Task: inverse folding
């Protein structure tokens, strides 16, 4: 009995759950319902049950598929088998027996009257059993092995469940990120609305809004920047904030003043950190557009506020950017500063022009043309340049004082001293009042305006002259290098065209001391950048035709604005125009620049030499034959005006090839002469007009016919209402929608067949129908036609490929047949030999 008590009892497992029965098959009787309703109080423990743990144990298999269910059931069976094996091993351990071979001999107690049979019968009692320590060691080993097997099974389950868990984790992370983003967005909106409603009491929320710009989410950072931009545009005051000094802080002030100081200091500090953040984010490609947009809008909205210098520096740097969006935003911001000077009083204009001048100097004139073209938005007051007459009032006052002094007697010295003291006090009071008035009134002083305008003009013309000097040096260097000097990212001379446009606009503000140097620069640039004849052809390749024409235009504008002060010979510019007319190419050069040059240099100039005018008339007639309708129309308009102004040049319309008595010293026309005075154009005839009368463009044919019918009488006066520029613009726009009408003349020949007349009629009908059709319909028909042609070509290709494949198959079949024949012949020969 003692040995049996020492043995451990078997562990009895709980019974398995009953089989699941569907809800539809369960039938509940009325008695059961009545019992439950009567004993509701006894069922209170049901509400406290842990339903989640029960569902985990019971319905853990609910959402699994058939394959997964099978795997689960197999794993459960494996676990059960493992448990059964462990239990069996434990039972065996309790009854462990040692083999009789390994058992040690033990002395047995002898019994009285013992025989050999009793010893044989008690042989089982001679087996040695294990001690308790050995049993415990074996149990520990078995438990460790069982744990290892259980862990391996669990790991296999986890490996199969990991893909589903990973997907669920990702979905949960996405949902949490979206929820946090929405909450932060709502928080940002609430802070912004509160600030706009009452900025003084909610000024602390500015720092909270700034914290959103430090978030890790890119979309939230952009929202924070834009929302802060809207808030700053609304709450920034209309004056510059001056922080109080240390002495002012030590003084006792009221609560309202303290509140105002706190508001201004927090606003200024947050605004400063916001600008620093924008400058940092501008360098990153993700936030570059948003940061530049915020900087430009702040500069346009509040150019009077603090830290304007940092905003201007960032914007001026971006005017030469390669990104079109950033460059346009920056240029529009600077143009708004130049136009809306009432917001900042003109101080921002001075700073912006000086910064652009420094930027051009630092980058050696290698910038985008838009960075200098913004100067065209500047406006100057011409009355400010004329100083007033401040001596009038002082003279009147001195006269009155002298009369009073002569009338006074020497005995009244004491009274005069008193009056002087009173006058001094009054003068001091007036000065204080005027100072306060100036600080309160927004209109700046005339002296300050004059000083700011002079600073702007000096920086502006410094930039323009630097660009001209740089182009001169670069053209000289390229001429020495045989024209192999390459340009930068924006071309060889990107800033020359906007520089010349600005000089043409602001030429009346240039000082007379610089006029001579300017004209010399323009003459050299119009010639190609060098005054020597040997290198003129090489330098002409460096500058374009339109740039050289602009130099001529600017020179004539400078002369017109300063007629009385300058005495400059413009013959060199006429020579350049005469040569550049034939160097013009429509696709390469700008036609509007050529039309402007013809208008300013030929149409508006009153005095022309007869030889020079005739040379230009002949050159324009040949030019109108070579190029498009817009260019030829502008040339014919100038030609007509020259003929109307110079009556003697109308002899070119006659058929006298020698020119008669008007031909002058040069009796023969030289078309390749570079100087118009040496061309001898009066000895030629305008035979080009006969060809131009048959031009397909009706406007050109009409003007050519009107010029050819012009009489040589001296009583005609020409009053021109059209200019070459206007005609060029009109015809360049009309060329896009111009459709020349065909000249289908009816034949009166009766011997022609009926088929020919029917063909002509069908052609006329088709042409009339196409003239009445819209462009969209024509495009559709043409697209259908070309699609058909493309289909035909594709069909031909496919047919050729099919022919190739069929031929290849036929060859392969023939090859097979020949192979079979050879095999049969070999078999027959073998049989005969056998």
Result:
């Amino acid at each position: 009995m003692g040995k049996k008590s020492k043995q451990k009892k078997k562990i009895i497992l709980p019974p398995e759950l009953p089989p699941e029965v569907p809800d539809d098959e369960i039938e509940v009787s009325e008695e059961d319902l009545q019992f439950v309703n009567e004993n509701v109080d006894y069922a209170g423990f049901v509400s406290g049950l842990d339903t989640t743990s029960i569902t985990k144990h019971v319905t853990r298999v609910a959402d699994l598929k058939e394959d997964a269910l099978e795997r689960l059931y197999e794993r459960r069976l494996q676990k059960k088998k493992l448990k059964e094996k462990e239990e069996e091993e434990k039972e065996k351990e309790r009854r462990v027996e040692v083999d009789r071979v390994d058992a040690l001999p033990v002395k047995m107690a002898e019994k009285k009257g013992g025989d050999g049979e009793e010893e044989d019968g008690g042989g089982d009692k001679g087996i040695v059993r294990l001690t308790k320590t050995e049993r415990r060691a074996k149990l520990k080993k078995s438990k460790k092995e069982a744990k290892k097997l259980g862990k391996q099974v669990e790991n296999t389950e986890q490996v199969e469940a990991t893909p589903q868990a990973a997907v669920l984790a990702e979905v949960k992370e996405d949902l949490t990120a979206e929820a946090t983003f929405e909450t932060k967005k709502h928080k940002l909106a609430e802070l912004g609305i509160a600030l706009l409603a009452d900025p003084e009491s909610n000024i602390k929320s500015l720092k909270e809004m700034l914290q959103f710009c430090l978030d890790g989410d890119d979309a939230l950072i952009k929202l924070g920047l834009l929302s802060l931009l809207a808030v700053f545009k609304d709450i920034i005051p209309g004056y510059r904030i001056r922080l109080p000094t240390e002495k002012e802080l030590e003084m006792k002030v009221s609560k309202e003043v303290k509140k105002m100081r706190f508001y201004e200091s927090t606003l200024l500090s947050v605004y400063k950190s916001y600008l620093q953040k924008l400058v940092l984010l501008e360098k990153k490609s993700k936030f570059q557009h948003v940061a530049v947009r915020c900087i430009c809008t702040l500069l346009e909205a509040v150019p009077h506020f603090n830290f304007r210098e940092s905003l201007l520096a960032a914007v001026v740097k971006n005017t030469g950017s390669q990104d079109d969006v950033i460059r346009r935003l920056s240029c529009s911001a600077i143009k708004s500063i130049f136009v809306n000077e009432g917001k900042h009083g003109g101080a921002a204009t001075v700073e912006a022009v000086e910064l652009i001048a420094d930027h051009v100097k630092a980058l050696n004139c290698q910038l985008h043309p838009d960075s200098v073209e913004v100067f065209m938005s500047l406006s100057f007051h011409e009355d400010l340049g004329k100083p007033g007459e401040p001596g009038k009032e002082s003279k009147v006052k001195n006269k009155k004082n002298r009369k009073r002094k002569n009338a006074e007697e020497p005995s009244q010295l004491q009274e005069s001293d008193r009056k002087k003291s009173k006058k001094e006090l009054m003068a001091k009071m007036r000065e204080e009042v005027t100072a306060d008035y100036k600080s309160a009134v927004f209109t700046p002083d005339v002296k300050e305006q004059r000083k700011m305008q002079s600073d702007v003009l000096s920086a502006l013309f410094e930039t323009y002259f630097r660009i001209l000097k740089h182009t001169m040096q670069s053209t000289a260097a390229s001429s020495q290098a045989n024209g192999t000097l390459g340009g930068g990212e924006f071309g060889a001379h990107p800033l020359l065209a906007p520089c010349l446009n600005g000089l043409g606009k602001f030429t009346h503000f240039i000082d007379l001391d610089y006029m001579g140097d300017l004209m010399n620069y323009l003459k050299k640039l119009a010639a190609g950048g060098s005054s020597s004849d040997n290198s003129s052809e090489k330098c002409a390749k460096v500058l374009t035709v339109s740039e050289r024409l602009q130099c001529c235009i600017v020179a004539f504008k400078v002369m017109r604005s300063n007629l009385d002060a300058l005495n400059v010979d413009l013959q060199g510019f006429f020579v350049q125009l005469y040569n550049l007319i034939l160097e013009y190419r429509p696709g390469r050069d700008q036609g509007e620049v050529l039309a402007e040059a013809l208008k300013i240099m030929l149409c508006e100039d009153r005095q022309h030499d007869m030889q020079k005018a005739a040379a230009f008339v002949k050159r324009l007639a040949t030019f109108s034959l070579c190029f498009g309708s817009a260019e030829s129309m502008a040339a014919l308009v100038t030609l007509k005006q020259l003929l109307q102004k110079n009556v003697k040049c109308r002899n070119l319309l006659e058929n006298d090839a020698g020119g008669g008595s008007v031909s002058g010293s040069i009796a023969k026309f030289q078309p390749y002469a570079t100087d118009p005075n040496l061309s001898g154009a009066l000895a030629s005839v305008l035979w080009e007009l006969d060809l131009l009368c048959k031009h397909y463009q009706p406007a050109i044919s009409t003007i050519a016919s009107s010029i050819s019918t012009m009489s040589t009488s001296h009583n005609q006066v020409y009053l021109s209402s059209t200019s070459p520029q206007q005609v060029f613009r009109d015809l360049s726009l009309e060329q896009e929608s111009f459709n020349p009408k065909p000249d289908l003349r009816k034949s009166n020949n009766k011997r022609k067949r009926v088929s020919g007349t029917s063909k002509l009629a069908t052609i006329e009908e088709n042409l009339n129908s196409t003239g009445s059709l819209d462009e969209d319909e024509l495009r559709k028909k043409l697209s259908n036609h070309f699609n058909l042609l493309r289909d035909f070509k594709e069909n031909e290709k496919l047919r050729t490929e099919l022919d190739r494949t069929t031929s290849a198959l036929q060859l392969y079949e023939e090859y097979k047949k020949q192979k079979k024949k050879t095999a049969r012949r070999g078999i027959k020969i073998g049989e005969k030999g056998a």
